[in-house]
UniProtKB/TrEMBL annotation:
CDD domains: ASKHA_ATPase_ROK
Gene3D superfamilies: 3.30.420.40
PANTHER family found in the cross-reference section: BIFUNCTIONAL UDP-N-ACETYLGLUCOSAMINE 2-EPIMERASE_N-ACETYLMANNOSAMINE KINASE (PTHR18964:SF149), ROK (REPRESSOR, ORF, KINASE) FAMILY (PTHR18964)
Protein name per its UniProtKB record: ROK family protein
Entry's family note: Belongs to the ROK (NagC/XylR) family.
């Protein structure tokens, strides 16, 4: 049984979550999971140490050290070689050009070959297709909305990175419009006040209904405008939204759906049903022969 248990990790712009996944069952072993905040502005050694601290805590809690691990990681990244190329995105700048796989392996005292690093968006979508909101669908677009903007397309029984984040949009790129910083910047522009998260913005709704409502409506309209071409090109059956911002779907979903309908692209939209578990399961199952994630081993 232990051979089928893989460490799954999901690294976001401000946190790491690690767990044990039974890849034969494709489910998380629920009694052992660790989540830690990460200072993504720290130096390389600080970041690697924070990630590994979470992994060591998991080993201690589980009294078991898996032979292999799969890590869902945001890009841009050379996933095969393990080198980070994240730059200009206000996270993990100090890792630019470094071989993250080798740094992790050295800190954990394992071989680099025992670590798979994969794009977080395809991992998210693979999990949703397997047993979440996208189960039973053959052609799906998945987006993750958080400190970054992830995207994946599922077709021909595999999930692949769509790399929407880098596509030019308005006066910048999509990443700058569909991530946490956009919300914080908009609120500060309108009020002069600083917030720490989209959750804080939602909490402002009872006192500042018009401002909060307008920010989310603008976000939904922008998202529809951006996704219009991809939906036309891919003809998906379903759009799945994940990431922390998707928890506020009730605020931006109506404008997203109405604008897509106006553009003659009405599509079924769902939010994740697995939450963080989708990326964890997707990353770990890269070691399973039946995986549909790119970078299959």
């Amino acid at each position: 049984m232990h051979k089928s248990i893989i460490l799954g990790a999901d690294i976001g712009g401000s946190h790491i979550t690690v767990c044990l996944v039974d890849v034969l069952e494709r489910k998380i072993i629920n009694d052992v999971m660790v989540r830690r905040n990460v200072n993504s502005d720290g130096n390389a050694q600080e970041i690697i140490s924070q990630w590994c601290a979470a992994i060591f805590e998991l080993f201690e809690n589980a009294a078991f050290k898996p032979l292999k691990m799969g890590i869902a990681m945001p890009g841009p990244f050379d996933y095969e070689r393990g080198i980070s190329y994240i730059k200009g995105l206000n996270k993990y700048e100090s890792l630019y050009g470094l071989n993250v796989k080798e740094l992790l392996a050295a800190e954990l005292d394992i071989l680099p070959e025992c670590i798979n690093i994969l794009n977080d968006a395809p991992c998210f979508l693979q999990g949703e297709v397997f047993g979440g909101a996208a189960k039973g669908y053959k052609n799906v677009i998945g987006i993750t909305l958080g400190t970054g903007f992830g995207s994946a397309i599922y077709s021909d029984e595999r999930a692949r990175d769509a790399e929407f984040w880098q596509i030019p949009f308005k006066d910048s790129i999509a990443e700058h419009y569909f991530s946490t910083n956009w919300f914080l910047n908009q609120y500060q522009l309108l009020t002069g006040e600083t917030l720490g998260s989209v959750k804080d913005l939602v909490a402002k709704f009872p006192q500042e209904r018009t401002i909060v409502k307008n920010i989310f409506e603008e976000f939904g309209c922008n998202l529809a405008l951006f996704l219009d071409k991809a939906i036309t090109r891919e003809s998906p059956e379903l759009l799945v939204c994940g990431g922390n911002i998707s928890k506020a779907f009730d605020f931006f979903g109506p404008s997203l759906l109405s604008q897509l309908k106006l553009r003659n692209n009405p599509i079924l939209v769902k939010t994740t049903s697995l939450g963080e578990q989708s990326a964890l399961i997707g990353a770990a199952s890269s070691w399973y022969a039946g995986s549909v994630v790119d970078n299959l081993i």
